[in-house]
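Ligand: nicotinamide-adenine-dinucleotide. Inputs:
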Amino acid sequence: MLGAGVMGGGIAQVAATAGFDVVVYDIDPAALRTGHEHATVGRYGLDSGVARGKLTREEADAAAARLTFTEDFEAAAHTDLVIEAVPERLDLKIRVFRDLDAAAPQSTILCSNSSGFPIQALSAATNRADRGVGWHWASPAPVMKFAEIVRTRATSDETVTTVCAAALRCGKHPVVVQDTAMAWGYVANRVYFAMVAEAQKVVNEGVATQDEVDQLLMDCYRWPSGPFGMVKGATSGWT
Ligand SMILES: NC(=O)c1ccc[n+]([C@@H]2O[C@H](COP(=O)([O-])OP(=O)(O)OC[C@H]3O[C@@H](n4cnc5c(N)ncnc54)[C@H](O)[C@@H]3O)[C@@H](O)[C@H]2O)c1
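Predicted complex:
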């Protein structure tokens, strides 16, 4: 796991709960500490899972024991499958994929949790495009079933099968979609951001406030959060 921020800590927690040994690397030691805290004692962390009856104490302790937060990049790269959740900057993600390709065993699958960059742009920086794939999670990772699996033309069937199996084991609902360089956002974010843009227009025109738009959409569509609340939650990790 690369990146211990809002997404990385939660993804690591979910994978460890599913029985995978997880090594989390971040360039920022403070982020490693915070990510560990979120995964263990945070609002959706392992302890809260026990309190909410989702896990037994033994299961939570076993998951915690499978989690390693480290400043050692090589340790995180030497795993069967790596998910990068570094900030949404294309240049950074390309560099991360290139560095992972150099450090990871040839068999390692490289996944990106990008919110929408073409996966083919990341895979092109590697010598293993058949093992490059998008595995897009939603926040908070321990709660949301969402698993948008983004395959490029080069992604192998075997890679897709392995990643879908891992997502299922993590309790998620994998849906495989096609990568495209034509638009940012795959499926979920393309549709979502079109809706947010319209919601912002409504606010700019003075038709309704952000809170009113959120309330109307929650009541009309039974969404747990409106478009503006969703943007805030994605930034804060719903803490
Ligand atoms: N927040 C959400 O709701 C959400 C949902 C789905 C996908 N995403 C995507 O997940 C990715 C991460 O988002 P986030 O909200 O967790 O961001 P974040 O800023 O909370 O965390 C990113 C972490 O990456 C670390 N980092 C930066 N450069 C690094 C490097 N070279 N190697 C290792 N770690 C590095 C940072 O120190 C930070 O801790 C982004 O691509 C984002 O678009 C976010």
